[in-house]
């Protein structure tokens, strides 16, 4: 099982990188089509239905940065998880899109073996938050694919759960895989759906709020410091 599991998880990493690269291809084609016509701007995948060239450029640059990073050798193993998040295995992949379904299908096969964890210090007002949200890091300083240069993994937030305001030195890129939720960056809130990409610059305060759907999102960390953990504010 171990060898087969390792192969499946490596496929997940490859599919995640492919999905991000395809996002940049979509963005390039969108800009070309828009610049070649005088039609009104329609829905835009990257910035909440607004065509914002600056944020689009930053996202494209971040995608290029993380997808060009060398995937390290696997040095750790994947064991069956005992995380309380396992109860959301099914619901976390129910509300994807045609674009994200190939990756969700791979995740379903090995969900119970992903390294789910929650490592914030306990909050007095939310003592059991780790039972409702967490992440599985595949590449990173403490991940089976060890890297101090960039991270890649998945964040899960159960229904009707607030991921409180927090920040971290790393530049964070998210791609929503399944579930619609509210995302807030520096006080600005917008609804995000599967397929959308969100960029959190270094040390900017952000939070997420789910409602009736479990949120599952691909994330990457890059920048000068991907070792320092997030902290609530």
Walkthrough of the structure:
Mean pLDDT is 90; it is low at 34-51. Helix 1 runs antiparallel to helix 2 and helix 1 (2-35) packs antiparallel against helix 3 (101-110). The protein is α+β, with helices and mostly antiparallel strands and 233 residues long. The longest helix is centred in the first third of the chain and has 34 residues, at 2-35. It is built from 3 helices and 12 strands, in the order H-H-H-E-E-E-E-E-E-E-E-E-E-E-E. The strands form 2 sheets. Strands 1, 2, 3, 4, 6, 9 and 11 form a 7-stranded mixed β-sheet that branches. The protein starts with a helix and ends with a strand. It has helices spanning 2-35, 53-67, 101-110; strands spanning 116-117, 133-140, 145-146, 151-157, 162-167, 171-178, 181-185, 188-192, 197-200, 206-210, 215-222, 231-232. 25% of the residues lie in helices and 27% in strands. Strand 7 (181-185) and strand 8 (188-192) form a beta hairpin.
Largest sheet: 7 strands, mixed
What order do the SSEs take from the amino end to the carboxyl end, as H and E?
HHHEEEEEEEEEEEE
Q: Helical content, roughly?
A: 25-40%
Strand content: 25-35%
What labels describe this entry?
25% helix; 12 strands; 233 residues; 5-stranded antiparallel sheet; globular; 27% strand; alpha+beta
List the helices and strands and how they pair.
Layout lengths: L1 H34 L17 H15 L33 H10 L5 E2 L15 E8 L4 E2 L4 E7 L4 E6 L3 E8 L2 E5 L2 E5 L4 E4 L5 E5 L4 E8 L8 E2 L1
Parallel strand pairs: 2-3
Antiparallel strand pairs: 1-2, 2-4, 4-11, 5-10, 5-12, 6-9, 6-11, 7-8, 7-10
Helix pairs in contact: 1-2, 1-3
């Amino acid at each position: 099982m171990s060898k087969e599991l390792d192969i499946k998880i490596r496929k997940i990493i490859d599919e995640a990188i492919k999905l991000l690269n395809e996002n940049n291809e979509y963005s390039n084609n969108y800009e070309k089509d828009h610049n070649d016509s005088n039609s009104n701007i329609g829905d835009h995948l990257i910035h909440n239905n607004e065509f914002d060239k600056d944020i689009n450029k930053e996202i494209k640059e971040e995608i290029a940065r993380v997808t060009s990073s060398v995937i390290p050798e696997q040095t750790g193993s994947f064991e069956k998880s005992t995380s309380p998040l396992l109860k959301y295995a099914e619901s976390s992949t129910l509300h994807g899109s045609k674009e994200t379904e190939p990756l969700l299908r791979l995740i379903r096969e090995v969900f119970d073996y992903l390294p789910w964890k929650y490592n914030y210090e306990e909050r007095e007002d939310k003592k059991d938050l780790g039972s409702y949200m967490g992440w599985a890091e595949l590449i990173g300083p403490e991940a089976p694919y060890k890297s101090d240069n960039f991270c890649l993994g998945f964040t899960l937030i159960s229904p009707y759960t607030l991921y409180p305001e927090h920040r971290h030195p790393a530049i964070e890129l998210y791609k929503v895989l399944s579930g619609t939720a509210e995302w807030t960056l520096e006080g600005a809130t917008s609804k995000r759906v599967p397929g959308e990409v969100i960029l959190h610059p270094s040390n900017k305060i952000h939070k997420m709020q789910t409602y009736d759907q479990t949120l599952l999102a691909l994330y990457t960390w890059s920048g000068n410091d991907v070792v320092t953990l997030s902290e609530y504010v």
